[in-house]
Amino acid sequence: MLKQSRVTILGSTGSIGLNTIDVVQRHPERFTVYALSAHSRMKQLADQALMTGAKVVVVPDTQARDTFKSHWISHAPAPEIRVGAQALSDTAADPETDVVMAAIVGAAGLPSALAAAQAGKRVLLANKEALVAAGSLFMAAIRQSGAELLPIDSEHNAIFQCLPHDGRASAPTGPTAGVRRLILTASGGPFRTKRWDELHQVTPEQACAHPNWSMGRKISVDSATMLNKGLEVIEAHWLFAMPPERINVVIHPQSVVHSMVEYEDGSVLAQLGQPDMRTPIAYGLGFPDRIASGVGMLDLALAGRLDFEEPDLKQFPCLKLSFDALRSGQGACIALNAANEIAVAGFLSGALAYTEIALVIDAALDWQAGVPESALNSLDDVMALDALTRQHTKPFLRA
Ligand SMILES: NC(=O)C1=CN([C@@H]2O[C@H](COP(=O)(O)OP(=O)(O)OC[C@H]3O[C@@H](n4cnc5c(N)ncnc54)[C@H](OP(=O)(O)O)[C@@H]3O)[C@@H](O)[C@H]2O)C=CC1
Ligand SMILES: CC(=O)[C@@H](O)[C@H](O)COP(=O)(O)O
Ligand SMILES: [Mn+2]
Questions:
Q1: How far is the CA of 76 from the centre of ligand 3 (A)?
Q2: With CB atoms 3.0 to 4.6 Å apart as the test, which of 18, 49, 276, 357 could cross-link to 343 if both were Cys?
Q3: How close is the Cα of 15 to the center of ligand 1, in Å?
């Protein structure tokens, strides 16, 4: 008889959150939902809490709490409502939960993801920004607490699947496992075939129209600029202890090969599948078992061909800026991420042109160059530099 795992989904109203609920509900014998969190979509959170029987919900403030209550129309008792950022971290570390899906978007998800790591949970990490901003702190917390870390980002999940791991949920470091290099695939996004000088006028709708994946708006814009792949290079560096020169990016427009590991003997292992996040989510939830995800068979004959091409760093300057940041150090990675979050929000609200996103990030990297690495030892240090970068970046936005 299986012991049921109690799952907390941070960011349950987002794209990863919805897919996680979908997979969890396919396996009532394995999983119960302990807690859910949302930021703005209170009606959706109330519907999810009713549907899953969650014991706890976490909302950002008292106004959101009142809105949540107004949407609770059931005669069933309402879940406990916890309020504020500290409640997110406390819930991630709650002794009543075993598994935490970290699916909040942006650096806002870092404190709660770190709290889950420190509390020794099984951490399903979708929130790549946590590793970009605080990879060293985060990985140290996993090691010290004995937490299980399962990468959910499709490329890192693919790499994890291609590495040897003896049924353990934290993979051995790359070089010691005989790995020559990691090859991250990138779709190239909606503007793959466009030149840089054709992109000045593109709209948020065009940028969010990802060719293969259905995702939240922030990561969709990141995919268009390929800053997403840059964040993923930094994420891979921390997850698999690989130096930047052993992490390569190749454009693969079909998003069928999710990433690859090349070994010293010349073997290249790849993980393939339909572009559907329920596959990596099911892998993380079920590990080491393989469980049904609802994803159908991969029809390679229908796909017809799998193409690969080199990314052009002039067309995708954000990819180059990400490698620069990784080589420069943690301060640069924090600034890259924070400036990008402000720039993407500005682009989505019409306060910045698409092509200005890279310029704003470049300026933030120049600006932070004076911050010494020794000043970044704690979560507070990281969040302080993140906040300073945002403050420095906001004046670039038009009113
Ligand atoms: N979507 C995908 O397929 C993939 C996503 N990822 C990563 O997973 C994470 C989530 O992405 P995705 O699901 O697409 O994003 P969405 O924008 O769809 O969802 C984000 C979630 O975070 C919540 N949220 C937003 N801001 C805050 C905040 N300040 N504090 C607390 N909660 C907040 C949202 O609440 P509300 O909706 O109520 O406002 C929502 O539940 C990102 O880090 C992304 O890079 C990685 C690989 C694939
Ligand atoms: C599904 C997922 O993991 C996304 O991060 C995806 O990789 C985005 O696609 P591209 O960044 O390759 O366009
Ligand atoms: Mn990805």
A1: 38
A2: 357
A3: 7
